[in-house]
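tool_call predict_complex ligand=magnesium ion
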Amino acid sequence: MLVLGIESSCDETGVALVQCHSAEHKGEVPELLAHALFSQIEMHKAFGGVVPELASRDHIRRVLPLAQEVLKGSGRSLSEVDVVAYTRGPGLAGALLVGAGVACALGAALGKPVLGVHHLEGHLLSPFLSADPPEFPFVALLVSGGHTQLMRVDGVGSYVLLGESIDDAAGEAFDKSAKLMGLDYPGGPLLARMAESGNPKAYTLPRPLLHSGNLDFSFAGLKTAVLVQSQKMVAAAGVSIFKDLPQDEQHDLAASTQAAIVEVLVKKAMMALKQTGLKRLVVAGGVGANRQLRAQLNEACGVRKIRVHYPELHLCTDNGAMIALAAAMRLQSGKQQASANYAFDVKPRWPLDSL
Ligand SMILES: Nc1ncnc2c1ncn2[C@@H]1O[C@H](COP(=O)(O)OP(=O)(O)OP(=O)(O)O)[C@@H](O)[C@H]1O
Ligand SMILES: [Mg+2]
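tool_result ok
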């Protein structure tokens, strides 16, 4: 069975084609045949963040050429597609409507059923496309631009929320701190690059909820602490903006910020593993690409004899492959059937544990 997946929840248009196995191969991971992605980052950079209306309009421009690219790359034709999947939520309503509308129009025109996918389920299952795929059950650490969650995952569609951020997400903490340092949107990867040559112990920044005893996170206070620290540094150096500070000071603050975020994520992930008694951790979402986070998780998991799995680096942030994969895994596990009802809706807010 061939599943075409369309992702359009935010500022990346992604399309992918996966081959899904039949029921007797239930345990096998669907095969990714081709995927294509267009990132709108350059367009939104000028505004310092995603402009929803511009995002929707650009998805309209990109989605069909990307679908053609995927079909060409896989050597398959549109008529061979058995199911058209799309991101139903969560995300920006207008952006989601583009993917959902195109998917349902394609489905109706081809006479093939459609399936709406939860974006975070896509992120969470994306490590199944890596060279070292996980096995159920596991604890998932979902760290993206909009979410920071710890989940107990017992199988496809079996998600129990263990803890989450009560305010900003980890990716947001990276991006907002980066913005204060004068870096372009999204600043997370740029801050991480600066941090590589900085001293993570140079400045003392808060580790919010580190000792709260539960698995919740809070990152909103961190950006205020970064702001206060950067203002102090600017005043002490007698310069007018952060970017005019000596480079080593800039790198030290970036490293200290990254260290604060990473320490909380690692500690809480270890607590979740201890609490559940599970011996496997799956990391997903854009922040999962962070090298320092990976290094510290590898170390902490190594000591505890816990297996840790990550998505391929290029599949950490939004992409169509994870949406096609999630649809294929839902179909293969019998959790969901594709539907010939093309009267779609989207769910901008949609808790994963309500699936
Ligand atoms: N190397 C890195 N270090 C830190 N943060 C990173 C790195 N690479 C990407 N990010 C962050 O990951 C986030 C984007 O990830 P992703 O695409 O998974 O999130 P999203 O789709 O915007 O949010 P959601 O999936 O919650 O709707 C951004 O906040 C970005 O700064
Ligand atoms: Mg995402």
